[in-house]
Amino acid sequence: MKIRIRFNKTGAMKFVGHLDLLRYFQKAFRRSGFQMLYSKGFNPHQAMSFAAPLAIGYTSEAEYVDIGLEDELSEEEGIARLNANMADGIQITGWKTLEDNSKNAMSIVHAARYVVTLRESFGLNKDLFETVHNFISQDEILIMKKTKSSEKVTDIKSSIFEIKVLSENSLELVLATGSVLNLKPELVMEAISKYLDIEYKENTYAIHRIDIYVNDNDKLVSLYDTNL
Amino acid sequence: MQEGALLCYVIATNVIMSKLCLSDEILLNVEKPSRYIGNEINSIMKDKDSVEVRYALCFPDIYEIGMSHVGLPILYNLLNLREDTWAERVYSPWIDMSKIMREKKIPLFALESQEPIKNFDFLGFTIQYEMCYTNILDILDLSGIPLLSKDRTDDDPIVMGGGPCVYNTEPIADFIDAFYIGEAETNLDAIIDAYKEHKRQGKSRRAFLEIMAEIEGVYIPQFYDVEYKEDGTLKSFTPNKPCAKPSIKKQVIMDFTSAIYPDKPIVPFLQTVHDRVVLELFRGCIRGCRFCQAGMIYRPVREKDVETLKEQAKTLLKNTGHEEISLISLSSSDYTTLRELTYYLIDELGDKDVNISLPSLRIDAFAIDVMQKVQDVRKSSITFAPEAGSQRMRDVINKGLSKEDIINGANLAFKSGWSRVKLYFMLGLPTETVEDNEGIATLSQEIVNEYYNLPKQDRHGRLDVVTSTSFFIPKPFTPFQWFKQCTSEEFLDKQRVVNNKMNKRAIKYSWHDVETTLLEGVMARGDRRVGAAILEAYKNGCLFDSWTEQLKYDVWIDAFKKCGIDPAFYNNRDRDLDELFPWDFIDAGVTKEFLIREYNRAIEGTVTPNCRQACSACGLIGLGGGVCYEDKN
Ligand code: SF4
Predict the structure, then answer these.
(1) A129 within 8 A of A172, measured Cβ to Cβ
(2) Please, is B7 exposed, middle or buried when counting C-beta atoms within 10 Å of its C-beta (0-12, 13-18, 19+)?
(3) pLDDT interval class at A44 (50, 70, 90)
(4) Are residues A188 and A155 in contact, defined by beta-carbon separation less than 8 angstroms?
(5) pLDDT tens-digit map of B426-453
(6) Dihedral sign (CA A68, A69, A70, A72)
(7) Beta-carbon neighbour count of residue A132 at 10 Å?
(8) A178-205, pLDDT tens digit by residue?
(9) CATH: 3.30.70.580, 3.20.20.60, 3.40.109.10, 3.30.1330.120. Which one for A2-102?
(10) pLDDT at residue A43 tops 80
(11) Fewer C-beta neighbours within 10 Å, C or N terminus of chain B?
(12) Cβ B543 vs Cβ B129: under 8 Å
């Protein structure tokens, strides 16, 4: 059976990177006694796929991994067994059986919602409400996107689906995520720094992911609720 | 979701974070921050107010290396089984982190509680290789503990040292309060018990060291005086306190089957060097290779019962979730029930997609069969460690591996599909000649010929042979402890001989670093005076010396000069058989008579049978168990 597991990632676990998290889950499934489905080949791998990697330093309350199981497990039992084998800072919060022909989470991800909290060291020098309002009202938001091989100027405005101020030092972002368009929250923060004319420094803000969405008839639907 | 709820969540996250010693901003600015967070599966948390003794266990290298070591989990488990004690871990912070910690004056902390080491009762180092000595000093310094034992006060933890390097404690004798010689399973508990009693009575640190000095296996350097002769060799080594024993007996656990073992080892988040379950088949080695310190100091061989191992394999896999299990020992083929164990594991675990690895296996029909079942033949390589290039030389070092063994093993492996071979040799062995060096190239070539002599349909593409040489360093408690180590020039000459003779179209030749070898030699057979140079080198920036790209060789050489240490005195001098050595006060079990006998047989080129063929009366029989009594049961 195909299962979509939802989990959160908080506390010290935010320092565990994506590849390490993958190994962590492989081992957690084994400790939980799950009969996993395996890929074929001499070095078989557990059939598992994460929706969207979470960068080191981010926390999240809704991450997703799809797995294939040989045995039938109820939601209750699955969650209980896994949670008995989790490290402090990761908790399984959802277990959903998928149709056998359903698409992998990774292939249908469209957007993600984040809360960004600015630290003192960010050096905010103006009112955040006003700043964000004016920032997003620009015709285009140009930023230098670096890849391994090249640097190019990109307009990120169309990848910012929503931006909202929550308090004097925190804001909420909904950003394009996935294989087609992908915008990292730190690029938005870099653009805001540039707009404010302050020096951009990494890690001067905390990022918390709220949820990951698919595009279902032009509506954002949580990966947990979608039937795609 | 409501805005208010969101904000609460963000704040709550920050509260959880405050458990870590280091701020997010620090952790996000260093390489691999999860080295410093603890919190791993099976790490042990206790309420600090409910324990009486806090013990920090340290492997003085980075986390990924330290976490791969099999000894530390044994101590961690042993100590944490006690309700009155909380053992935690600490590793060397990498250079990026220690720089920040110094700038911000953050003291070094233990991973579990995230609390400063300075507040612990004990700081125990496991010392696995000589080139970590400056890292020991760095750990002390970052913890705010005086580097020299004599400068420490009642506010400092008791600093202990154990592991293979403590078979010559003297180069680091000034930095360590108490050494423990041998296996911890025997007397670690006695030390903790004595400490509790002492703490209750509120006595001084020095008073406790005196109590400790009476426990078997414990050596307190400051209770011994050292005198030197005019020629620089040791004149005397004598206790200056009635509590100090003239000879310190190596501790050995005789019943290895029922020895406590860690059934829930920690599962790191980071990929470590050994990301797998490790099962110890036996301790010790029957072989008696004359260059090998491990083969001498871990005697006698004590096997773990096969049924126990089967159970432990299952338990460990279940408790860790690892997908690989490694059966380790100094020479796995010598485990008496290896076949039964291996085939059991393959049958039981194979369908659970658990990989089984068997390092240090002699290549024969059994090994080939097992490897075919557990490895991808095309990707894996077969390994031979002849150690020396000629039969004469192999007889001198008592390595009972003949050319036929190697060629036949290679032939079997080639026919079964292998086309990668790794060969390991040493350069600079006692009595070695140019012919012996050339033999390395010749033997490598003979393996190549063996492959290309096979009919074409039996071959699998191009043969890939890597021949590696390391430089021989004589170690204490081996029959070679009296021999000189080669100078750097001599080593390089030998390397050149091999390199010139090597057919590089078919064989890749790789070698070891000669600078590290010189330093390692001084540490391996150095005396107490060497400590000053270690301190000097550390103060001038030496750290992570085992990392070739970090090694500051010139700084070391300057430190030796400044402290009046002549490396040649320690390395390049044949010692007299009656010279008093800085490690002679340790009773490692093997007697000096045996070592001298082996020294003489080495010079004659006479092979000594292994423990199962015939006992050579090395001295261990007095312990009343292990291989020495195998056929007498
Ligand atoms: S006493 Fe004999 S059998 Fe025992 S370890 Fe020594 S040589 Fe081997």
Answers:
(1) no
(2) middle
(3) low
(4) no
(5) 999 999 999 999 999 999 999 999 999 9
(6) negative
(7) 17
(8) 988 999 999 999 999 999 999 999 889 9
(9) 3.30.70.580
(10) no
(11) C
(12) no
Q: How far apart are CA B146 and CA B372, in angstroms?
A: 54
Residue B60 tokens, joined: 């003085």
Cβ(B628) to ligand 1 under 6 A? yes
Q: Could you confirm whether domain A110-222 is CATH 1.10.10?
A: no
Q: Which residues of B touch A121 (CB under 8 A)?
A: 25
What is the pLDDT, as a whole number, of residue B377?
72
Average pLDDT over residues A29-46: 80
User: Quick check: helix, strand or coil at residue A118?
Assistant: strand
Q: Are the C-beta atoms of A204 and A118 separated by less than 8 Å?
A: yes
Those residues of chain A whose CB sits closer than 8 Å to some CB in chain B are 10-13, 15-17, 19-21, 23-24, 26-31, 33, 38, 42-44, 56-57, 59, 61, 85, 87-89, 115, 117, 119, 121, 166-167, 170, 172, 202-204, 206, 208, 210
Distance from the alpha carbon of residue B236 to the mean position of ligand 1, in angstroms: 30
Instruction: Give the pLDDT confidence score for residue B351 in this predicted structure.
Output: 67
pLDDT for the residue A148: 76
- Does residue B300 have a cis bond before it (omega within 30 degrees)? yes
Q: What is the pLDDT of residue B10?
A: 40
Q: What count of residues does chain A have? A: 228
pLDDT at position B633: 47
pLDDT of residue B9: 40
Q: Which atom of ligand 1 is nearest to the CA of B620?
A: 1
- Torsion sign across C-alpha atoms B123, B126, B132, B133: positive
- Encode burial over B347-361: b for 16+ CB neighbours within 10 A, e otherwise: eebeeeebbbbbeeb
Ligand 1 mean position, distance from CA B616 (Å): 6
**Average pLDDT of chain A to the nearest whole number:** 92
CA atoms within 13 A on the CB side of B617: 4
Q: Which H, E and C letters describe A163-209, residue by residue?
A: EEEEECCEEEEEEECCCCCCCCHHHHHHHHHHHHCCCCCCCCEEEEE
Q: How far apart are the first and last CA of chain A?
A: 16
Report the distance separating Cα B7 and Cα A117, nearest Å.
9
At residue B223, φ and ψ (nearest 5 deg) are: -90, 15
Helix, strand, or coil (residue A160):
strand
Residue B371 has a pLDDT of: 85
Going from the C-alpha of B408 to that of each of B111, B308, B401, B404, B454, the distances in angstroms are 50, 34, 11, 6, 13
Q: How open is the CA angle B629-B631-B632, to the nearest 5 degrees?
A: 60
Domains annotated on chain B, with CATH? 44-249 (3.40.50.280), 276-375+590-633 (3.30.750.210)
CA–CA gap between residue B374 and residue A75 (Å, rounded):
35
The residues of chain A that CATH labels 3.30.70.580 are: 2-102
A100 versus B31: which is more confidently predicted? B31
The pLDDT value given to residue B14:
40
Residue B422's nearest CA partner among B432, B413, B430, B431 is B413
Q: Is B252 in the pocket of ligand 1 (CB under 6 A)?
A: no
> Best of B7, B10, B22, B23 to disrupt the A interface by mutation (most A CBs within 10 Å)?
B10
What token pair was written down for B525?
């057979």
pLDDT at B5: 40
pTM of the model: 0.93
Q: Alpha-carbon distance B68 to B89, whole Å?
A: 13
Q: How many other CB atoms are found less than 10 A from the CB of residue A225?
A: 11
Q: Comparing C-alpha atoms, which of B584, B621, B633, B583 is closest to residue B300?
A: B621
pLDDT beneath 50, residues of chain B:
1-18, 633
Tokens encoding A42: 């001499």
